[in-house]
Amino acid sequence: MAESKWTFAQKFCTDFNVTASELATRLDALKSSSIASSDAVQAIASDLSRLTKSLSDATGSLPSYDQRQCELQLKTLEKSTEELRGASTGTPKRPFEPAPTTALPPAQLQSSTPISSAKTLSSFSHRYLTTANFDTKDSSAEVSIADLDSCIVDLLPKGDDGAKITAFHVQRVSRCIFLLPPVTGSILLYDLSECVIVTGCHQFRMHNSSAVDVYLAIEGNPVIEHCSNIRFAGSEDKHFMVQDFSHIRPTPSPNWSALSEEQWERRWPVSELEGHALLKELERMLPARQGGLVE
Questions:
Q1: Residue 115 above 50 pLDDT?
Q2: Closest by Cα among 265, 163, 270, 1 to 9
Q3: End-to-end CA distance of the chain
C-alpha cells in the first residue's frame, strides 16, 4: 500500500508540474503581448480550475512537502491569472465590507495539508468543543475536524494552554460555529452546511459547501468551488476578491456575497454553553440554507 501511494504521488507531481509549467508559459506569452484577450485569459482560468481540482482530489495522498509545493505553484498561477483578467476587462476588484468590531487576530501562514497524525475532533453532536476535546494530547500542530452537527468549536487559546495549531482540515459538518485561532498552514474545508467560521489565514479553500458565513482576515484571495450562499466579511484595511472555480466568467459569481454592515455578528460565544443555551445560540447565529449552486 505504501509503495502504491508513493507511486501515485510521484506520477501526480510529475503531471502537475508539467501542466503548471505549460500554464506559466501561456501566461508569460499573454503578458508579453500588447493585448491579452478575455477569451485567452478565460481558457487559462478554466485549465487552472481543473488543475486546482486535481490537487484537491489528491489531498491526503501526497506527502506534506509535495502538497505545499503544488499549492505554492497554484498561488503564483492564480495571482498572474487575476492580474491578466483585470488587465483584459478593466474591472476593478470587488471590495469587501469591514470585519466585525469584535475582531479576531489575523494570521500569516504557508500552505500545508492535514496528515494522519493530526489532532482530531470527530463525531460530536450538540456540544461546546475546545482544545480539551482533542483525541490526543501529542504535539501535532495540525487539526482534522469531521462529522460534527450542532456544535460550537472554540479553539482560541485560553491563557497559557500552549496549544499552537498550524493547519485545519474540516469536512462533513453541519450547523456549527467555528472560532479558530491564527494558523501557520492552510485551511481546507469540504462539505459544510449552515455554519459560521471566524479565522485568519493566507490560504483558504472551501469545496462542496452551502450557507456558510466566513469572517476572514487573509493576505491573498479565498477560493470556493461547488459552493452556494457563501457570505464573506473581510478586515477593515484589506479588500480581497473570492475566486469561484465553479463560475470562471467575467461576471460576478452568484455563489458568494459580502456581508453588509448590518449583518455583521458582534457577539461571539467565547464562554462554554450547553443544552438549551447552546441550541439557542446556534439558532441566533447560523445562516439559513437557501438556493443552490449557480455555474
A1: no
A2: 1
A3: 38
CA distance 291 to 268: 27
pLDDT at residue 92 tops 60? no
Using CA atoms, how far residue 256 sits from 206, 236, 253, 281, in Å, is: 12, 19, 6, 24
Are the C-beta atoms of 189 and 183 separated by less than 8 Å? no
pLDDT in tens, 155-212: 998 766 655 788 899 999 999 999 998 887 789 999 999 999 999 887 899 999 999 9
Give residue 289's pLDDT. 63
| The pLDDT value given to residue 31 | 82
Helix (H, G, I), strand (E, B) or coil at 123: strand
